[in-house]
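Shipment paperwork, digital attachment
Item: protein structure file
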Amino acid sequence: MVIKEREWDWYGDLEQRDSTEFAVIHHAAWSSCTADEIHRMHIKEKGFFGIGYHFFISKQGEIVRGRPFEAIGAHAKGYNDKSIGICLEGNLDTENVTPQQSSALIELLRYIQSIYKKIVILRHKDVNSTECPGKNFDLDILLKAMQPESYVAKEEHWAEKHFKYLNDNGIKIHERRFDEPITRGEHFATLERTHRKLTST
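Attachment content:
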């Protein structure tokens, strides 16, 4: 994972968080924008010291650092002093998260989880009265994608017992390609082994 570092001009002194309990996910609500544009907008229109998010992820999956990792953000009222803010480019009321964004977001969240083991992932709408990060952002799908792959036992193929019987009784078949066509050569070899086994008993 690569995080693009930026030197921002802050219009005030940023304070550090005392705790980090949450990662809050947002969308920009602009179909196309950059971290620089959000930085300027947050200063001019919201009166923030600068970009309020800690990370911005473009549609191409580029991760840009906003506020310093341990600084208090300006993205979720009542939670800024205990959360990390992540913003996705796009308007997720009318668009979907791109595959590149999704992969980058999962990587970033796993990285954050490696530092803050008990961090809880939330949407902006979970903590404030807003529709952010948009109706097309599915937190359940994200959380499922972040889980370690679990082993799922496969149902035994119907031919497995026959394969085992033949091998146990000296009719050796070296591969289990149950659903692939058998060649003439393989058929002849199987017949020969069967004949040898029958005539040797």
